[in-house]
Amino acid sequence: MVIKPRLKGSLALTAHPAGCEEFVKRQIDYVKKSDKYSGPKKVLIIGSSSGYGLASRISLAFGAGADTIGVAFEKGVEGKRVGTAGWWNTVAFTEEARKEGLIAKNFMGDAFSDEIKENVIEYIKKEFGGKIDLLIYSLASGVRTDPKTGITYRSALKSTTNEIEGPTINLEKENIENGKMEVATEEELISTVKVMGGEDWKLWIEALDKADVLTEGFKTVAYSYLGPKVTYGIYKEGTIGAAKRDLERTSNELNDYLGKKYHGEAYVSLSKALMTRASAVIPVFPLYAALLYKIMKEKGIHEGTIEQKHRLLKDMIYGDHKELDSDRRLRPDNWEMREDVQSAVESLWDKVTPENFKELTDYAGVREEFMNLNGFDFDNVDYDQDLDLDELAAKKI
Ligand code: NAD
Ligand code: NA
């Protein structure tokens, strides 16, 4: 089987296993060549298969020698379908980690369910040495079933003020379209907070605490985004911003609890804007990212997912460069938010048109990163190769 990229809007419909392996290996190489750190030994990552969760797992394993448990919602080969990028990322990570003698255990299923929490806890107790010292919470999901009530909530990427129109990039058609964001109903706002807020993070910590599998000094970090003024309407003042504020409230509750009981810590970390599966579909966001990449590359301060997460873990969480803001949030987005960066983005923002966006922004860079997420556009991968589905299906994680 030969696999070609297929896009629908800014959603990727196919993924390339050999390219996903390359994607993971390049991140591992980056960490191997970078400075190391110590502290994390037994780590649980929720949302471990792509984007920021995957990069964190790679940094922790290859930068600090940590054993890891990953939880993600991905599928391998089924019939003629080759499976998701996150599945193949996980296959590649697991092979490489085990080569180094590290434990890499994976749970593929719904992180919001009680069942997966029970399974992970049982594994920690019986086979993972009994305790974890770090939990990374990096979920991006559109739907959550509340395990207590059985009610299913769907998140809505909507405005909470007024209808917003703005330019956005369509990666399939490679053009700029007018993105529209409608105003959320009260129910949509509540649902988005249910899905993307802090409730499930707290349920994980409560279950792990109750099962007595947290070490003294246990830490937990959840990933969030704030973004600059040009995206406030869609992000900070949108339903997603409300969910992220709920996450921040949760971090403070958890920090108090964990501090008292374990001398532990809980943080929200605001990361830099990057193209991932989750962010590519947010209106306006890809165009902002394309402008930001251009400016940050010109200034020599651009970072990809792995650079962001390695810096967060090595310098801030386990190092002495903890950049906390007045709301006690970790700020690895500090370079994105620099005054000179944002004013350069703003002045370009006013000049961008559907005709000139490929020249004025780093569209090529954003597109390449997006294609790489699904294992495409690597110069050293042979995309004409005929992949054997049976052989791929036999790969276990
Ligand atoms: P992503 O889509 O690349 O990763 C999401 C992960 O969640 C995947 O591993 C997926 O398998 C997993 N997942 C989704 N639903 C699940 C479920 N029900 N059960 C188990 N696993 C499930 O997304 P990302 O961009 O890495 O986002 C992760 C976090 O980082 C989010 O909180 C996001 O807001 C935040 N963040 C993203 C950006 C950005 O620019 N992309 C910036 C800052 C912060
Ligand atoms: Na992730």
TrEMBL record:
Sites binding NAD(+) sit at 47-52, 73-74, 110-111, 139-140, 244, 274-276
Q: Which residues form a coiled coil?
A: none
Keyword NAD listed? The answer is yes
Q: Name one GO molecular function term.
A: trans-2-enoyl-CoA reductase (NADH) activity
GO biological process terms, semicolon-separated: fatty acid biosynthetic process
Every copy of the Trans-2-enoyl-CoA reductase-like NAD(P)H binding domain together lies at 2-77
Q: What keywords are assigned to this protein?
A: Fatty acid biosynthesis, Fatty acid metabolism, Lipid biosynthesis, Lipid metabolism, NAD, Oxidoreductase
Task: Give the reaction(s) catalysed.
Answer: a 2,3-saturated acyl-CoA + NAD(+) = a (2E)-enoyl-CoA + NADH + H(+); a 2,3-saturated acyl-[ACP] + NAD(+) = a (2E)-enoyl-[ACP] + NADH + H(+)
Q: What is its EC number?
A: 1.3.1.9
- Binding sites annotated in the UniProt record for substrate: Y225
Site residues (Plays an important role in discriminating NADH against NADPH), renumbered to this chain: E74
Which Gene3D superfamilies does this one have? NAD(P)-binding Rossmann-like Domain
Show the active-site residues.
Y235
Looking at the record's lineage, which domain of life comes first? Bacteria
Q: Which residues form the Trans-2-enoyl-CoA reductase catalytic domain?
A: 81-318
This protein's record includes keyword Transferase: no
Q: In which pathway does it act?
A: Lipid metabolism; fatty acid biosynthesis
For the Enoyl reductase FAD binding domain, which residue ranges apply? 324-386
Q: Which family does it belong to?
A: Belongs to the TER reductase family.
Q: Which NCBIfam families match?
A: EnoyACPredFabV, PRK13656.1
Q: Describe its function.
A: Involved in the final reduction of the elongation cycle of fatty acid synthesis (FAS II). Catalyzes the reduction of a carbon-carbon double bond in an enoyl moiety that is covalently linked to an acyl carrier protein (ACP).
Which PANTHER family does the entry mention? ENOYL-[ACYL-CARRIER-PROTEIN] REDUCTASE [NADH]
Q: How does it assemble?
A: Monomer.
Q: What is the protein name for this chain?
A: Enoyl-[acyl-carrier-protein] reductase [NADH]
Species, as recorded: Sebaldella termitidis (strain ATCC 33386 / NCTC 11300)
**Species classification:** Bacteria, Fusobacteriati, Fusobacteriota, Fusobacteriia, Fusobacteriales
